[in-house]
Amino acid sequence: MRIVDFHIHVGKREHWNPAIHKLFKKLNPGLYEIQNEIMTPENIIAMLDDSSVDWAVILAEISPKVTGVVTNEFIAEFCKNHRDRLIPFCSIDPTEDQDSKGTLEHAIQALGMRGLKLYPTYQYFYPNAYATSQRMEGLRELYEKAESLGIPVMFHTGTSIFPGARLKYGNPLFLDDVASDFPKMPVIVVHGGRGPWFDMAFYVTRLHSNVFLEISGLPPKNLLRYFPQLEKVAERVLFGSDWPGVSSIADNIEIIQDLEIGEKTKAKILGENAIRLLGLES
After folding, report:
1. Which of 60, 101, 248, 278 has the fewest Cβ atoms surrounding its Cβ within 10 A?
2. CATH number of the structural domain spanning residue 133
């Protein structure tokens, strides 16, 4: 079975805001102390090998209001010599970047990145704000550029443990407009609407053929409780770990392999859907 982890963070201590340092120290002081040392491409690939993961999406994070800044350039360089295993995704803060479509074009065409991650709850914007606010008209241009480049766009949805995150921006309902208005752009519902919106994330995914349900940050043993009809959208579910937010990628994979769903569904969730979406074997 080929496996893709669609959600890995590799930021170092200098990338994070003070409140995030404090939280990381509290949650996992051992990991915090060695964070900079372990965040190398070689160590990440060794971890993937230990977990039988073939490819991993490595995420930039431009969220200065909440978490910090892991630049597109850092992620592109991190993955540079390992593009056979590590897939770089860029990030843009559409509330601050006055030329977000230009930034995206540079990230994809010059830096060789393969997709875009947006953080509405950290960047403080509604994903469909292009339809309601003149100030956010640049968001429409960003989506148009993503659609023309043929790349997937990930949206953080649901809750967050990080101080300063604002839940109101994380409702997957806002992605209904985005998926409708940009039907050729793959829309990824990150964390599956974690917390209050599992049902909404599922229904938006089921409604739109260009929407994918990403399950990172969710206890895999509870997936069928969160999404009882998961197999109805089996073609568009993506596995992600949210490492280092989880202690063991391998354990999460093993739990999914033990779920009471079809073997073909497991294979799709753990890798086949992502391979098809990213064109990893084309």
Report:
1. 248
2. 3.20.20.140
